[in-house]
Amino acid sequence: MAAIAKLFGTILTLMILGYVAFFAVVNDAVIQLTLWPQSAPIEAPIWLITLCAFCAGLLLIALLASMRISALRLSLYRTEKKLTRKTDALAQASQISSTKDAPHSASERLSFHDK
């Protein structure tokens, strides 16, 4: 299953790279782009501006996803910590109840079974 996923990922990556290369070759026109804080226009090919916008979007998505993953890891850590505490408390309570109920000497064991 992992090999199929890796193959699919490789094929998808090659298709995207092919599309980007085709887009860069076809769209070689130069445009002027004026950004707000800067008064001078920037001249760049269409493919470069599009590729930069696409990469900026990928970086933003990666940042948001990493923040979500960090929140999920923190939640998992807290839940595991609570589970460990409750498991330890249950084991301790079980051990205390078993030592209370269990007879300690042979005479206590006999008297316990005779009742």
Written description of the protein model:
This protein has 115 residues and is mostly helical. The chain has a domain at 73-98. The chain is 78% helix and 7% strand. It contains 3 helices and 2 strands. A two-stranded antiparallel sheet has the order 1-2. Helix 1 packs antiparallel against helix 2. The chain is elongated, with a radius of gyration of 33 Å. The model has no long low-confidence stretch (mean pLDDT 85).
Number of helices: 3
What spatial order of strands do you see in the largest sheet? 1-2
Structural class: mainly alpha
Largest sheet: 2 strands, antiparallel
Overall number of strands: 2
Q: Which regions have little confidence, pLDDT < 50, spanning 5+ residues? A: none
Give the ordered list of helices and strands. Answer: HEEHH
Mean of all residue-level pLDDT scores: 85
Distance between the termini: 63 Å
What are its keywords?
single chain; about 80% helix; about 5% strand; two-stranded antiparallel ribbon; mainly alpha; elongated
Write the layout of secondary structure elements.
Layout: H1 2-26, E1 30-33, E2 42-45, H2 46-101, H3 106-114
Antiparallel strand pairs: 1-2
Helix pairs in contact: 1-2
Brief account:
This protein is mainly α and 115 residues long. Helix content is 78%, strand content 7%.
